[in-house]
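Data availability (excerpt). The following record was deposited with the supplementary files.
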Amino acid sequence: MTVSGKAESRLRVGFLLASRFTLVAFAGFVDALRLAADEGDRSQQWLCTWRILGEPGASVASSCGVAVRVSDPLERPECFDYIVVVGGLLHGGQAVPAKYYQFLRDCAAKGVCLVGLCTGSFIIARAGLMDNYLACVSWFHREDFVDEFPDCRVTSSQMFVSDRDRLTCAGGTSVVHLGAFIIERAIGRARAVKALRIMLEDQPLPSRTLQPRRRVSP
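Predicted structure:
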């Protein structure tokens, strides 16, 4: 595919959505891809492509009740550069089909990078794929992560972490900066900046940008 007469590389992303996933994490990340992918904000998947993986035709409900339809089956990991796992509510357990875990293992075996948004890092860790990697989670969920995965390394002091082929972030607005990081290294900084400027963010923030620490009342 070409844009403005120049051949450019593509960024191929597949999404796995947990039941009751956080909508802002998914929307922020996929919109960063959408705005980087084309010319003039026409939502054309030129430089980036994305698919929602699972049971085609089924819908996955987010934590706010808005549902997203699955477009493609869980197959052919080699067709993707990144698999992005979008987590969400932890209480009551994260409903993730067993075949998701096997798909993640297949992806890892083929060298596909795995991305955990919000509590997506929990799902990747449950698949046994965060051993010897540093995970980034929100301060809000740090104790939950440590309790469930006492042998995993974790930080809650920065926005996101890129540790080789595992990328994890705190959730919230940090997802657009993790998205920009991936966009920049795949298709260039200009595309990453373009996406963020349209989203009214000035520049991509580095991974070590501190998370806000103020605790909120229930």
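Summary of structural features: The first strand starts at residue 2 and ends at 3.
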